[in-house]
Amino acid sequence: MDLASSLIGLGFVLAVIIPIVWSSIAQKNKKSKSLNNFLKLAEQQQLKITVSDVWSDIHFIGLDSEAKKLFYLKKQENDEQSVLINLLDIVSCKVVNIGRTVKTSNGSSKVIDRLELKFTYSNAKIPEKTIEFYHIDKNAAFGSELLLIEKWENLIKMTMKKKGSVAG
After folding, report:
1. Read out DSSP for the chain?
2. Which of 29, 38, 74, 113 is 20 to 30 A from 100 in CA distance terms?
């Protein structure tokens, strides 16, 4: 009974663990392949990405710190949006948090509908650009996008402060 029970228990444990590990490895490989494709697209734009992030498996953002350029890609099945922003032409970058207040049994809480980074150009004739980090109708779930957008806002602002260090 001891050996047979142990083998049966081990079999059940392996039957549960193996698919989880397999799925995790497959997801990691998919994310790595997607990031490599993003970096290749950035190279085609003559960019050397030094900092990058991927979220929701469809959003990619990268910064070429030396050239002071930001590259963003949103890649879905039938839709691809890429944005290249020269940070030397930008006067401001700020987080746009569009939401609403919802009444709950405990009072009220804020629901985030959209998170974007908005860029304003020094040339007023150039329209502002936005980069979407989250949209309630397009993203399955809200995760770390709020922390991520704040990270990128700070990173971009720090890069913009160093404008004078690039020969133009």
Report:
1. -HHHHHHHHHHHHHHHHHHHHHHHHHHHHHHHHHHHHHHHHHHHTT---SEEEEETTTEEEEEETTTTEEEEEEE-SS-EEEEEEEGGGEEEEEEEEEEEEEEETTEEEEEEEEEEEEEEESSTTSPPEEEEEEETTT-SS--SHHHHHHHHHHHHHHHHHTGGGS--
2. 74
pLDDT one-digit tens code per residue, 52-79:
999 888 899 999 999 999 999 998 777 8
Q: Which of 16-25, 77-86, 130-139 has the lowest mean pLDDT?
A: 16-25
pTM, to two decimals? 0.76
